[in-house]
Amino acid sequence: MNKVPLREKIGYGVGAIGLDLSYGLFYSYLSLYLTNALKISPLFLLILAPLARIWDGINDPMMGSVVDRTKTRMGKYRPWILTGAVLNAIVLSLLFNNPGFSEGSVWVYVYVAVFYVLWGMTNTLADIPFWSMVPSFATEEKDRNLVSTIARTFSGLGQGIVAIFTSIIVAYFGGVAGSDLDEMESSALSTGFGKWSIISAAALIFFAFICVASTKERNVVISGDEKFSLRKALGIIRKNDQLLTFMLFAMISNCGYYMTSGISSYYFLQVRGDLTLQSKFNLLGSVGSIVSILVIPVCGKFMSNRATYRFSLTVATAGYIGMALVGYVLGGNVIALGICFLIASVGIGSMFVNQTVMLADIVDYGEYKLGVRNQSLTFSMKGFLQKMAYTLQSIIMYSAFVATKYDFSKGVSKAVVNEAANSAITFMMFIVPPVMLIISHIIFAGKYKIYGSFKREVLDAVIRKREEMAE
């Protein structure tokens, strides 16, 4: 029986809006801001992104272990959600607001590097405890699906706000009529992004407060008081074979989606010559994300979670293949592209919900196999694999920019783009995403085993252990 009121689940899910406003700005628009407004070299970003992920490989499991051992009057997760949201909001604002360093100067590079790394650390402070709360709400599959669906719905709302309105809002604050970011000078672009980041930061804190104030923590298991050991944490991760499998196929599929969000601004700005087309494209994608809310509840009536996940990957792949056909064969009509992206977004949205549910199952599996429930440590890998997915996307994208000599030095509207750069951008927009989804699908189908009777066996064993501890 569901003991958690729907209003509390909604209050929890609302927190995802602010988190994804920060996510969306960082991963979808930071690259454009840095290269076109601050004139940061793509080669520098190609080096910075992997170095930041090396630190995340230490920081994320460390934070997960700290959360697993937290015990306060507010609970285990909620203090970190609020603290992380406040710190991440501050860093987001500073990252998108140049304090006055000259464009292209050494100090700009230092400033960007410091706050690029700090964004990842502060986001981890809020993201890990937020998503780690999912198993504490419910143990049954249907209830976990509902919690995850609600959270991912609000997550999609946050992403949709960034995707649809960023170009319009940035242009407005930058003093440009309409939303023609491709016509903005670097100073106006900096001003627009700076003000929009402050608004997003305020929203991040506001929604985190609602989340913390409206939820209670249930089924919480506190790990031991021993000090954090990176070696031990990595050993726990390494021994959980299903967590490693999940990280691999989820990272690859997520990278395919992030490639679209990361390269689309360059595609519409440089290849198509009109960034305003991106808003129409993203609007239809956001409609797909909303529709994706229905996939799991509907499919769950006659499909297992495993079958639903495979269905989601298939739908997403079909949408991306349709985009490739429109982009290469049918002239790239933006409405047709948007409709295909709508289809892909239906699959991607439900894929993300399923991945959250899978992590809850993997927490149970880890307890079943290792005898210890490392809930936050396991969920810390969600944020880490997302960062790794973005890093893989960044390596592909910036390597292409460097190889094709994509030159930003003359500003946004005067960027030097050759035919090779246009071809590379188009390839990354239409070919890379479906290829990655297909690879991910193959790995999932062959290696992931927490389903069917084995999944029931795992859950029954965890419930029995919980009952024995309560006696």
Summarize the structure.
With 471 residues, the chain is an all-alpha fold. The chain contains 17 helices and no strands.
Mean pLDDT: 83
Largest sheet: none
Low-confidence stretches: 409-414
CATH class placement: Mainly Alpha
Rg from alpha-carbon coordinates: 22 Å
CATH topology heading: Growth Hormone, Chain: A
Structural class: mainly alpha
Structure summary, number of beta strands: 0
Share of residues in helices: over 70%
Name given to the CATH architecture: Up-down Bundle
| Helical segment count | 17
Number of domains: 1
Give the CA-based shape.
globular
Q: Between the first and last Cα atoms, what is the distance in angstroms? A: 21 Å
Your description of this structure?
With 471 residues, this protein is mainly alpha-helical. The chain has one domain: MFS general substrate transporter like domains (Growth Hormone, Chain: A, Up-down Bundle), CATH 1.20.1250. The protein has helices at residues 6-37, 42-68, 78-95, 106-132, 134-137, 141-173, 186-214, 230-239, 241-271, 276-291, 295-299, 305-328, 334-370, 375-403, 419-430, 432-447, 452-470.
Produce the secondary structure layout.
Layout: H1 6-37, H2 42-68, H3 78-95, H4 106-132, H5 134-137, H6 141-173, H7 186-214, H8 230-239, H9 241-271, H10 276-291, H11 295-299, H12 305-328, H13 334-370, H14 375-403, H15 419-430, H16 432-447, H17 452-470
Helix pairs in contact: 1-3, 1-4, 1-6, 1-7, 1-9, 2-4, 2-14, 3-4, 3-7, 4-14, 6-7, 6-10, 6-13, 9-13, 9-14, 9-15, 9-16, 10-13, 12-13, 12-16, 13-14, 13-17, 14-15
